[in-house]
Design brief:
With 628 residues, this protein is of the alpha+beta class. The protein has 8 helices and 39 strands.
Length: 628
C-alpha cells in the first residue's frame, strides 16, 4: 500500500512537471525566472510616456523582413510580473493596418524592472514607418513611429537629413510662433523629400522654466506623429534646461540621452550626448556604445550637439563615488578623436553654431559637419556672415563603401518647401498644401494626407492620388505632384466642396500710442490662404496695415491712432471663401492709475458701502415723511 502511494505520488509529480513545462513552452511570456538579456539603452530615471523603453520615437528600429529584435516594456507599480505579451506593428498607411510580429521569447529583468520581448518581422509587412503596440495582462502600450521596415533587404546607401537648433516652443511670443511654423513646414518638407532618417543635433526644444512648459515637449511630440520617416535627436543646451529644473521630459517623450541606431549591417548612427559642451558621464556613454557596436562593421557616424572644435567642449567622467572628473579641452579633443577612430567613425554631425561649418579632424580624417540652424535667425544674428533666411536642412548621402555626398551650403525652406494649410491630423474633410521650388531642378514628390472621412473618389486639384486607405472611416491618401524650377503651386484634396468661410479671432492691445492686433486665424475646410488687416479713424476710409516682422513673425501695428480706431481683417480660405471681421478700440489719453494695495482697496470698499447704506437710509426716511 505504501509503495503504491509512493508510485502514485511520483506519477503525479511527473505529470505536474510535464504540465508546467508544457505551459511555459506554449506561453513563454509567463515569467518565473530572471532573464539574462542585456538592455540596449542606458538606465531610465522614469517610466516613459508609453511604457516602451525601446524602440522609441526618437530612437527607432530600422529592420527588414525576418529580422529579430527585442522590445523592452517598463513595469510600473501595481503591474503583475506574470504577463504574456503580444506585439504588433500598426500603420494607417497600409491596407491591413495591423501586423502581428512573430513571438520568439519573453522574459523579465529585475535589474531594469522591465520585460523584454524577442520578436521578428513577418514578410507580409509592407515597407514603411509603424507604431509599435504591445498588449498583455489587460494593458496596451503604443510607441508611435518607432519601427521602420525596409522590406526584404537593407539599402547599400542611405540619405540622412540633418537638422540642428529647431528651438521649438509654445509660449505666446514671436520667436515661438515663427519656430512652430518652421517646425510644421519642416515636417511637411521632410515627408516630401523622403530621406531614410532625420537626425537633429540638439537644441531641439527651446529652454523651459517651469512644469507648465511641458507643453513644449507635448506639442512637438504631437507634430512628430505626422512624420512619415524615422527620426532621431540628441540634446543641446536648451533641451537640458528641463533637466536642470528637475524634469525628465526628454526621456518621457522622446528617447534616452544616448545610444546606437543600426541601419542594417552597412550603417550605424551613434547618438552622443554633449549638452552645450559638457560631455557628461562620457565613460558610461562609451561603455554602452562600445558594447552595442561590438563586432559591427560598416559606415559609422555620430550625431551630437556641440562640435568637438568648440573650446567649451569638455568631457566629464563619472567616478565610482558619484562625483565627476573634468578633462581639459585639449584632453577632451584627444579622447574624442580616439573614441571616433576606435569605432571607425568617419563623420560627426553637429549644431549649435547657427551657421554651416565643415572641418576635418585628426588622422585618419573625421569630417565634422555642422548645419545652419533650422530655427528662425535674424540677419546677422550671431556671426557677421549669418544669412537672414531660416529653416535650414542638409541632405547627406552615405554609401556602404564609405563615400559621402553633401552640399557645402545647407538649403533652407525658402528655397524648397511644403506647407500644410491645415495640419493633416484627420480633423478636416479637406486640405490644401502649398509647395514652392526656387531651386534649379524640378521636384517629383509625394504628400501624405489624412482626412476626417474617406471616399474612394476624392476631389483632387493639382495632384494625383497614388494610394488611398480607409482607416476607421478616416481618409488616408498619398498625393503625387511635380514642381518645376521657380514654380509655386497649391494642391487640394477634399471629399465635398468647402463652403464655410475661415474664422479670425482678433485681440486688440493698446499701449500708449500703439495699437497691436493680435490674431488667430483658422479654417476647418481647406485652410487659411491669406489675410489682410486694415484700420480706420472714421469707420469709412480704410488703410491697409502692412506687417512688421519680429523674429520672422508678421505683426500688425498701427502707430499713434487718433481717437476712436476701427479695425477689420479680411480672411480668405484656400477654397476661395472670404470673411470680414470688425472691431474698434478707444485711445487711452491719460495713464490709468496704478492699482492700490489690497488692504486699502478693502478699506475703501467698506467706507463706500457704509456711506451708501447711510445715504439710502436717509433717503428712505425723507420719502416716508413726505408720504405722511
Amino acid at each position: 500500500m505504501y509503495l503504491n502511494l509512493q508510485l502514485k505520488a511520483k506519477i503525479l509529480i511527473y505529470f505536474l512537471v510535464l504540465i508546467v513545462f508544457s505551459t511555459y513552452t506554449a506561453f513563454p511570456g509567463i515569467v518565473i525566472a530572471e532573464a539574462d538579456v542585456m538592455p540596449n539603452f542606458p538606465s531610465y530615471p522614469i517610466v516613459p510616456l508609453n511604457h516602451v523603453l525601446t524602440p522609441r520615437i526618437a530612437q527607432p528600429y530600422l529592420v527588414v523582413h525576418g529580422q529579430e529584435f527585442d522590445v523592452w516594456i517598463a513595469k510600473s507599480e501595481g503591474m503583475a510580473r506574470e504577463i504574456t505579451w503580444s506585439v504588433s506593428l500598426e500603420s494607417i498607411f497600409t491596407e491591413t493596418g495591423k501586423y502581428h510580429l512573430e513571438l520568439l521569447d519573453q522574459g523579465f529583468s529585475s535589474s531594469v524592472n522591465a520585460w523584454w520581448i524577442s520578436v521578428s518581422t513577418p514578410v507580409e509587412v509592407p515597407p514603411g514607418l509603424y507604431n509599435l503596440t504591445v498588449s498583455g495582462g489587460g494593458y496596451k502600450f503604443t510607441e508611435p513611429n518607432s519601427v521602420y521596415v525596409f522590406g526584404d533587404s537593407f539599402p547599400n546607401r542611405i540619405t540622412v537629413l540633418h537638422l540642428a537648433d529647431t528651438c521649438f516652443g509654445t509660449r505666446e511670443m514671436a520667436k515661438h510662433y515663427s519656430n512652430q511654423a518652421l517646425f510644421r513646414d519642416m515636417i511637411a518638407t521632410i515627408n516630401a523629400l523622403k530621406p531614410d532618417i532625420v537626425a537633429v543635433s540638439g537644441d531641439f526644444i527651446d529652454g523651459i522654466a517651469s512644469k507648465n512648459d511641458e507643453e513644449f515637449y507635448r506639442a512637438a511630440y504631437k507634430y512628430l506623429l505626422s512624420l512619415r520617416v524615422p527620426f532621431t535627436a540628441v540634446l543641446g543646451g536648451t533641451d537640458y534646461t528641463a533637466n536642470e529644473h528637475g524634469f525628465t521630459f526628454w526621456e518621457e517623450y522622446f528617447a534616452p540621452f544616448y545610444g546606437v541606431i543600426d541601419i542594417g549591417p552597412y550603417f550605424h548612427l551613434i547618438r552622443l550626448d554633449s549638452d552645450e559642451g559638457k560631455v557628461m558621464a562620457f565613460n558610461e556613454q562609451k561603455e554602452l556604445i562600445y558594447r552595442l557596436m561590438q563586432g559591427k562593421e560598416g559606415v559609422n557616424f555620430v550625431v551630437t550637439h556641440e562640435p568637438p572644435i568648440e573650446e567649451e567642449v569638455m568631457i566629464w567622467n563619472k567616478l565610482p563615488n558619484g562625483k565627476f572628473e573634468r578633462l581639459s579641452h585639449d584632453e577632451t579633443v584627444k579622447e574624442l578623436l580616439g573614441f571616433f577612430h576606435s569605432l571607425n567613425v568617419s563623420l560627426v554631425l553637429g549644431g549649435d553654431l547657427h551657421r554651416d561649418h565643415i572641418e576635418t579632424l585628426g588622422e585618419p580624417p573625421v569630417i565634422n559637419l555642422v548645419t545652419n540652424a533650422a530655427q528662425y535667425d535674424e540677419g546677422e544674428w550671431f556671426y557677421e556672415d549669418a544669412r537672414s533666411d531660416s529653416g535650414h536642412y542638409r541632405p547627406i548621402t552615405l554609401y556602404s563603401n564609405g563615400e559621402l555626398e553633401y552640399r557645402d551650403v545647407s538649403p533652407c525652406l525658402a528655397e524648397f518647401g511644403v506647407s500644410y494649410l491645415n495640419w493633416p491630423d484627420g480633423s478636416s474633410s479637406g486640405l490644401a498644401v502649398s509647395i514652392w521650388n526656387k531651386e534649379k531642378e524640378a521636384k517629383s514628390i509625394e504628400i501624405p494626407v489624412v482626412l476626417s472621412t474617406y471616399s474612394d473618389k476624392p476631389i483632387v486639384e493639382g495632384a494625383e492620388v497614388v494610394a488611398s486607405y480607409n482607416s476607421s472611416s478616416k481618409g488616408v491618401y498619398i498625393l503625387h505632384t511635380s514642381v518645376q524650377p521657380g514654380e509655386e503651386k497649391i494642391i487640394k484634396i477634399y471629399i465635398k466642396p468647402d463652403t464655410v468661410p475661415p474664422k479670425a479671432k482678433i485681440t486688440p492691445e493698446l499701449k500708449e500710442n500703439r495699437l497691436t492686433l493680435k490674431y488667430k486665424l483658422s479654417d476647418k475646410g481647406l485652410g487659411v490662404l491669406r489675410a489682410k488687416f486694415y484700420y480706420s479713424n472714421d469707420n469709412k476710409t480704410w488703410i491697409e496695415i502692412k506687417p512688421t516682422y519680429k523674429t520672422g513673425y508678421p505683426n500688425y501695428i498701427v502707430e499713434s491712432p487718433k481717437g476712436l480706431t476701427y479695425y477689420k481683417v479680411i480672411v480668405e480660405g484656400a477654397a476661395g471663401n472670404k470673411a470680414t471681421y470688425h472691431g474698434k478700440t478707444g485711445r487711452v489719453k491719460t495713464p490709468l492709475p496704478s492699482a492700490a494695495p489690497q488692504s486699502i482697496v478693502k478699506s475703501l470698499s467698506l467706507i463706500i458701502l457704509v456711506v451708501t447704506a447711510a445715504a439710502l437710509t436717509l433717503l428712505a426716511i425723507i420719502l416716508l415723511k413726505k408720504k405722511k
